[in-house]
Specification:
Blueprint (H helix, E strand, L loop, with lengths): L1 E6 L5 E6 L3 H12 L4 H25 L9 H34 L7 H22 L3 H6 L5 H9 L8 H6 L6 E6 L4 E3 L6 E5 L9 E5 L3 E3 L5 E6 L3 E5 L4 E5 H9 L22 E6 L3 E6 L2 E7 L9 E5 L3 E3 L4 E6 L4 E4 L6 E4 H9 L16 E6 L4 E3 L5 E5 L10 E5 L3 E3 L5 E6 L3 E6 L3 E6 H8 L42 H4 L1
Antiparallel strand pairs: 1-2, 3-8, 4-5, 5-6, 6-9, 7-8, 9-10, 11-16, 12-13, 13-14, 15-16, 17-18, 19-24, 20-21, 21-22, 22-25, 23-24, 25-26
Helix pairs in contact: 2-3, 3-4, 4-6
């Protein structure tokens, strides 16, 4: 490693650090002396690039191509990129035409695979060439400079690279450039200085009453308060109705604002979204099929199914996951793995969130045959807290009969999920009319009772009789102190001796 003063070909001198053995350092010094210094090399390279850009710009103007828009540096760079891409597409088209001419000489039929492929390649090349010839945004060429001729032909075949249509030309929409729309001051919902986004209200629109969210950096404010927004032709625009949102194409928004309706229409709400596996979804149900109820102190929404595959059945949904979105409908939010329990039939049915979403998204044209059975009768019985306890299994509760009943000291079990402890300490058991209770007795072993038999068996003592030895902190019948009469034989004749100093005296 050594430092050496080098005189470059341009005449400038500089001290350069050289590495390696002496022979390599000598070779490196000779190479540097035969080249330009760093600043002169940069100037020479910039000059050649400018000459190339000017030459390509002149060729583009001679070909009748429109002028590009952008900063001077962007335009100069994009002129060269455009010329290179057009030359590449020209080369592909010429090769395709030569192959077709050769196929004609060999008398190949139009259905031959090589002829079909060459025809398709020529058509895609002509489409891509026409599209590139119309693009005037320098940014587009710079952003897509890495696209090869094959990629451009693929984009043309897929329909993503096409010349502008007559409608787009008439409306002034540029699918590959920057477009502008002006919103009056009364349609600007929110957009003050320093905000990152502005909210624009759509009036006299197919999305009446919805708002558009747009970056504030792509807007210009005029003195009269109106707002001019700028957006690329390939951008997706965020349109929200206040609860739900969709992304619409820039072309659709541009056409909607260019061709405004004569008067404001009905408020627009986005419909129920499509089902997406693994994500939360929403289901809209008619408001007339919705009611509320309270079960064990908790509020539930009751959804009645009409014009459904499960006609006449209903299910419960948490009130916290229910809201009103659009007029005449109620929206319920559903988790990805949600299971709906349909009640009201001969037996409970379990339906997944996908099936319920499909059923409500496409209801039947008219109500079908009802699947509802006879309504289930539910009973509630209350036990004193001294009569019940947790069973050994842990998920059931146990109640013991008094000794003076038909089944003395018998025990009965009930699922814990159907039991609730009240504020006064008593416990409620809930069961339907078809429930079967099994009593375990000391004499006869096991007895089975219907719901009606069980209600009759516990009617005289449930919630009233306590277990033996139970201490009641507050007796039910406590006489006032002034009403208590002490018999004379219990009174003592000898007064109570005094205490303290009086006793000592």
């Amino acid at each position: 490693m050594a430092q050496r003063s080098i005189t470059f070909e341009c005449g400038h001198e500089a001290v350069v650090q050289l590495y390696g053995r002496s022979q390599r350092r000598e070779w490196e010094a000779e190479r540097l002396a035969a080249s330009l210094c760093g600043s002169c090399y940069a100037e020479e390279r910039a000059r050649k690039i400018a000459e190339e850009n000017e030459r390509n710009a002149e060729a583009n103007r001679a070909a009748g191509l429109p002028a590009l828009t952008g900063s001077p540096k962007q335009v100069a760079w994009a002129e060269t990129i455009r010329r290179e891409k057009l030359d590449q597409i020209d080369d592909v088209r010429d090769r395709a035409e030569r192959r077709l001419k050769r196929a004609e000489e060999l008398e190949m039929g139009p259905d031959d695979e090589r002829v079909v492929r060459s025809n398709r390649q020529r058509e895609n090349a002509e489409t891509a060439y026409a599209a590139l010839s119309e693009i005037t945004d320098a940014r587009w060429f710079i952003d897509n400079q890495s696209w090869s001729a094959r990629t451009l032909l693929w984009e043309a075949e897929a329909g993503r690279l096409r010349p502008r249509t007559e409608k787009q030309r008439a409306e002034g929409f540029d699918p590959y450039g920057l477009n502008r729309l002006t919103f009056p001051a009364e349609e600007v919902v929110h957009g003050s200085e320093g905000d990152k986004y502005v909210l624009l209200r759509l009036v006299r629109s197919r999305w009446e009453g919805c708002t558009v969210v747009h970056p504030a950096s792509m807007t210009d404010v005029t003195p009269d308060g109106s707002l001019t927004v700028k957006f690329a032709g390939d951008r997706k625009v965020f349109v929200s109705d206040g609860v739900r949102h969709r992304y619409v194409s820039a072309e659709a928004l541009h056409a909607d604002r260019v061709h405004r309706r004569d008067e404001a229409g009905e408020r627009h709400y986005w419909p129920m979204p499509d089902y997406a596996p693994g994500e939360w979804t929403e289901i809209d149900v008619p408001e007339g099929d919705v009611s509320e109820t309270e079960i064990r102190g908790r509020r539930w929404t009751v959804i009645q199914l009409t014009c459904s595959r499960w006609e006449g059945l209903h299910f419960l949904h948490p009130v916290t996951l229910t809201r009103r979105h659009r007029r005449g409908y109620v929206t319920i939010r559903v988790a990805p793995d949600w299971q709906f329990r349909l009640l009201g039939g001969d037996k409970m049915l379990t339906v997944g969130s996908r099936e319920m979403h499909e059923d409500r998204a496409a209801p039947l044209p008219e109500p079908g045959e009802s699947l509802a059975g006879n309504p289930t009768t539910w009973h509630t019985i209350t036990f004193h807290h001294s009569r019940v306890r947790r069973a050994r299994t842990g998920d059931t509760r146990l109640a013991r009969f008094p000794l003076d009943t038909e089944w003395p000291d018998a025990v009965v079990l009930h699922p814990e999920r159907l039991c609730r402890v009240r504020e006064d300490g008593s416990e409620e058991w809930v069961f339907h009319g078809d429930w079967r209770f099994r009593l375990r007795t000391r004499e006869s072993g096991t007895e089975e009772l219907t719901a009606e038999e069980f209600l009759a068996a516990v009617e005289g003592w449930a919630g009233k009789k306590t277990a033996p030895g139970t201490y009641l902190q507050v007796p039910e019948d406590l006489a006032p102190v002034e009403d208590i009469v002490i018999p004379d034989d219990l009174l003592e004749d000898t007064p109570i001796p005094p205490k303290g100093p009086e006793l000592q005296a």
